Amino acid sequence: MKAVINTSRKQGKISKYIYGQFTEHLGRCIYEGIYVEDENIPNTNGMRTDVINALKELEIPVLRWPGGCFADDYHWRDGIGEKSSRPYMVNTNWGGVVENNHFGTHEFFELCEQLNTEPYICGNVGSGSVQEMRDWIEYMTFDGDSPLANERRKNGRDKPWKLKFFGVGNENWGCGGNMRPEYYSDLFRRYAVFIRNYGDEPIYKIAGGPNVDDTNWTEVLMKNIGKAMNAISLHNYSYEGDWNSKGDSVSFDENGWYSNMASAYKMKKVIKAHKAVMDQYDSENEIALIVDEWGNWYDVMPGTNPGFLYQQNTLRDAVSGMLILHIFHENSDRVYMANIAQMVNVLQSMILTEGENMVLTPTYYLFNMMKGHMDGLRLDTDYDSKNYEINGSIIPQISISASEKNGVITVSLCNTSIDADEDITISICDSNISSAEAIALTGAINSHNTFDAPDTIKPETLSINVENSNISLTLPAKSIAVITIK
Ligand code: AHR
What we know:
alpha/beta; ten-stranded mixed sheet; eight-stranded parallel β-barrel; 9 helices; 26 strands; 29% strand; globular; binds alpha-L-arabinofuranose
């Protein structure tokens, strides 16, 4: 197969925020996975040293918190002040476990500071009040003399935090209040007035968006809210089967591999449908689409709490993950942010933990390999892949995306075929190659890392041939690869 990358044809910026993450008070994501109160696990102010060090490598641009469904049940006042006096609550969404609120606003910003990431907070519309939301904003971001800002100071934080991204509710068509879009739009208009700008930069307001392909929700919000919102969020998960039988995260066969690829590739159709609606109301692309929940969702690991959504992570997740990231790149005129669900121990995670142990997943390696694309300018890339038809959908065997940043070209490629290696020659037009290197991730279809065998799957050097402005390589079946060209 031949691919031509035209370095002089730039196609807009791939927003770094597409590589965002999501953490919710769900299962062992926050407690145990990130935040510990166990002196046997090395930590700084509760944040696990091993997990933080591994995540720092990913240069995470933005982190969403506290949910998810949990956000519309969360009352921020319960999570400030002396930990021993913080009220308990029952996490009714996720396993009915007791939430002690020891991880709250101050701890979340501490996590963001340790990771050097920007916070994205999702507020409570479903069970909260306008006053609660307005007060939280003032507590976090007001620099002057006010009871709320002084309360923050009393709780140990003198200067306000920088908060750019704020979500006005989560899945308000479902767990966030079971609303109709007309009702939600009116609520958004009201809540948004009280999200005041105390900092230097106006807060970027994200409306709770549609579920999968519910374009009516998008249309009503575009019509009724319009530019009072900066973005609409979209949630779209992929499976091996469907919502009622999602498949096992590790035990799957060839069919399970391909049906997951087809499910992941549906992201293309879903984004296209919402974009078409948004284009009718906003031809200048001023309102963004933010896919703030995406990833592979399988049946929970047998023997684990069904409300904790714990699953393993295999090569399949890395390959279908790259397919989706490429779809975000292609739609970077509208898709400004995306947040994979979720960062640790829940759904398609970067990291899994068990007590003091930690493993990096194939999805961690995918994100680490893709870093070069963040804020890069997408380059026109021409190629003609073979396609497969799976469950009535057409999926490409090969997907390629290229970008340029600071004179470095990053090319990412994945091969969705289980058995066909692909010989590829890439011509880089209008640019000289002084050096090029590649790494790849491959293995058996269900290769994964465990606490006993943490290095079963990790990236390895991929051999490439460079001749003038052509790079040739064999992209192994079931693999992802990234080439860095200087
Ligand atoms: O990520 C798990 C859950 O999926 C989130 O809490 C919710 O928003 C979505 O339904």
